[in-house]
Amino acid sequence: MPALPTEEQVAYMLAHPDDNLIPNIIACTSICGIASIVFLALRFSSQRLVSSRGPTLSDWLLIIGWVFFAVFDVCFAMTTRYGGGKHIIYVTDPRMLQILNLANENTYCYAMAFIKLSLLSLYGSVFTSKRFRYCVWAVAAVVTTWAVSIATVGIFQCTPIAFGWDPTIPGGYCFNYGLVVLIGGIINIVTDLTILCMPIPLVWKLHVTRQKKLLLCFTFAMGGSACIISMVRLAFALEVGSTADGSWDNIPAGLLSVVELMTGILAVSIPTYRPLYRRLVEGPSWVKQSIQNDYASGNRNAEYHRSFGREGPRSVSVSAGRVSVGTRQGISVTNQIELTVHTSKGGSWVRVPDEE
């Protein structure tokens, strides 16, 4: 329960008027906000190299998550106008500061939820096992319930709500919101670890080299960086909503929340960066091979494309259930197989009659 500062606490605040975390808030929100935009831009640039289709379900969920993150980032930065980053006795507008804090608590929950749902959607598009799909839906349900519950409890942590910024209201009270944050943080970490471990057994069954299996596991495990930040953030949980100097004591948890969400956006995007990495490393004459699932439309047909060199004379495109037409002439193979003989005449492929 938030309380009025004691005489000793007030004396300390008066003795340290220069204590200021505002530069930390501005620097963190600015850097993380710009970085999140870069991560999204790299994700879509990488996907454009191997597919001309629009955003997938995973992309849309991540975009929604980024919107919530952007609102959280801006609101957290705006708290500095009303005393955020300073001791409580220097707060200029307690009401606006508390309203922004409530907005931060809600947008954080929904941003984290949509980021996780984006990764789960990506899992569902890559792995088609029915049992694995049930696990994806179960974890998605837990994540959604967690977000809605914590966000709702955050709004009504004080009765009346105005008691959150005016503890002198007669009859008002707040429950121990720090305990709620602690429990919510533990559930958040458990779902993080669950999501990280889910694809490992399926990756290990793939018919690829051991090196590629380890690389895939490492790629998915990059999300562990956000999980580590969540664990560190948990150390500040009990202070949230219970300290008498919330405008100062809650700032470290807020900074970690910004970094945590930014890292989550990066972790969800890293598995999509491989085409861009190969394009940058191997240059214009790269040899690219990609297996894509048409998970945006629910079509599980795989598409395989390979191009040879910058000025290669031929290309091969194989797709299940449809014909893929390229810009250059070459050999097109579908699931409707017909063996024919072709010869190159005048720069184009010409079918040789059977009688020849």
Number of helices: 12
Q: How many domains?
A: 2
Structural class by SSE content? alpha+beta
β-strand percent reads: 5-15%
Q: Strand order, biggest sheet?
A: 3-4-5-6
CATH class division of the largest domain: Mainly Alpha
Low-confidence stretches: 285-330
Rounded mean pLDDT is 79
Element order: H for helix, E for strand = HHHHHEEHHHHHHHEEEEEE
Which term fits the overall shape? elongated
Distance between the ends: 91 Å
What value does the Rg take, in angstroms?
Answer: 27 Å
Multimeric state of these chains? single chain
Q: Which bin fits the share of residues in helices?
A: 55-70%
Main beta-sheet annotation: 4 strands, mixed
Q: How many distinct beta strands? A: 8
CATH architecture type of the largest domain: Up-down Bundle
Fold-level CATH name of the largest domain: Rhopdopsin 7-helix transmembrane proteins
How would you explain this protein's 3D organization?
It is found in: Membrane. Pfam families: Fung_rhodopsin. The protein has helices at residues 7-15, 22-48, 57-78, 94-126, 130-155, 177-197, 200-204, 210-221, 224-234, 246-249, 251-269, 274-282; strands at residues 158-159, 173-174, 289-294, 299-307, 315-319, 331-333, 342-345, 348-351. Mean pLDDT is 79; it is low at 285-330. The protein contains twelve helices and eight strands. It is elongated. Helix 2 runs parallel beside helix 11 (251-269) and helix 2 (22-48) crosses helix 12 (274-282). With 356 residues, the protein is of the alpha+beta class. It folds into two domains: 14-272, Rhopdopsin 7-helix transmembrane proteins (Up-down Bundle), CATH 1.20.1070; 285-351, no CATH class.
